[in-house]
Write a structure and sequence with these properties.
Shape: globular
CATH topology of the largest domain: Rossmann fold
CATH architecture of the largest domain: 3-Layer(aba) Sandwich
Number of helices: 10
Largest sheet: 7 strands, mixed
Order of helices and strands: EHEEHEEEEEEHHEHEHEHEHEEHEEEH
Number of domains: 2
Length: 350
């Protein structure tokens, strides 16, 4: 058990400052790596009446953003920026500097940290982790791995403690991205952190690079007209009650059924490689398609009626891929999808 003195000191400094500024306000220097840009959007495809069945949004989304994505409005992509922090302290899952506390790993800041090692001194480092990637598998694939591509080979990268995503190590092997060391507890003289959430062309370049790496690592399987990705039970419960009937219908069309809960990363990638379309219930498991889906491929997402979300529409627009969705109907214990609507959307995506 270790005392988190950085958290104690931050608490005092925040009281003296009267506010808790964003940690980027404490940067001694900022470099813009890619400017803000505006890109044309693409309208989403969906069957008549789908939006009327939406009963609620994901807690991480807002309806204004979703409506703009559905319409295909032009998208303003945030700039990618690097911030230099001097004399920051990394403790547990947070960075501390002056009155600032900034989460970068999975878990809360605690005054008594059970696994806090003695503080080490690091002259210079680049942080290659964001809290979303530490918390969620989908963000790990889309955000953390692309972020790790920014520092040069000579730069010292560090990571942060995250959930132990089952397939993370396998994808790191396939993509040639070993896990950065996690200091646990360190004072860092010069720490570079990044703002890299915009789906701009700089991020597109890194997606493309990782997609090429995957194809160099994985032998593809004979082509199929598409893939259905089972959700499994690792995340929050989203039960598609008529999934077996849908799978029987898709298998008759030649679709490959992929169950990530019972396969390793290399097996998943081999089964999905260059599939022209992926169908799945909305969720992080759809990220298995980020590096495997064919160029110009399509997402067909089954939206739970009470948890509508379009994060993969943002990715699809960035990659010039097509995107369609259907909204399921609520049922006791989960929801059901209209298989006729799936057929309709497959015809429209053909």
């Amino acid at each position: 058990m270790g005392l988190n003195t950085a958290l104690l000191g931050r608490h005092v400094r925040r009281l003296l400052a009267g506010r808790a500024p964003d940690i980027t306000e404490m940067a001694s220097d900022m470099q813009e790596l890619w400017p803000q840009q505006v890109s044309p959007g693409r309208p989403a495809l969906f069957p008549p009446g789908a939006l009327e069945r939406c009963l609620g949004l994901s807690p991480w989304r807002d309806w204004q953003t979703e409506q703009a994505l559905i319409r295909g409005d032009p998208v303003v992509h945030a700039a990618t920026q690097a911030y230099l922090l001097r004399n920051a302290v990394f403790a547990g899952t947070h960075l501390y500097l002056g009155p600032c506390k900034h989460r970068v790993g999975h878990g809360e800041a605690r005054y008594l940290e059970p696994d806090l090692p003695p503080r080490q001194h690091v002259p210079e480092a680049h942080l290659a982790s964001v809290w979303t990637g530490a918390d969620f598998f989908g963000s790990f694939l889309r955000d953390n791995l692309t972020l790790e591509m920014i520092p040069s080979a000579q730069d010292r990268k560090i990571g942060a403690r995250g959930k132990r995503h089952r397939h993370a190590a396998g994808y790191r092997d396939l993509l040639g991205l070993p896990e950065p060391p996690i200091p646990g507890h360190a004072r860092i003289d010069r720490l570079t952190i990044y703002r890299d959430y915009g789906q701009n062309q700089f991020k597109r370049q890194r997606y493309d690079s990782l997609r090429s790496r995957l194809r160099a690592s994985v032998p593809g399987s004979p082509g199929a007209p598409g893939v259905f990705l089972r959700r499994g039970t690792d995340g929050e419960a989203r039960r598609l009650l008529n999934e077996e009937a849908l799978l029987e219908r898709l298998a008759a069309k030649g679709f490959r059924i992929v169950d990530p809960a019972h396969a390793e990363s290399v097996q998943i990638a081999a089964q999905m490689l260059d599939a022209p379309i992926v169908i799945a219930v909305e969720g992080s498991h759809l990220s298995h398609a980020v590096y495997t889906l064919a160029a110009g491929g399509a997402f067909l997402v089954i939206q739970p009626p009470d948890r509508f979300a379009l994060p993969f529409k943002e990715f699809a627009d960035c990659m010039e891929m097509r995107f369609a969705f259907v909204v399921a109907r609520p049922a006791d214990g989960g929801f059901v999808v209209d298989t006729g609507e799936i057929d309709m959307m497959l015809d429209r995506l053909a």
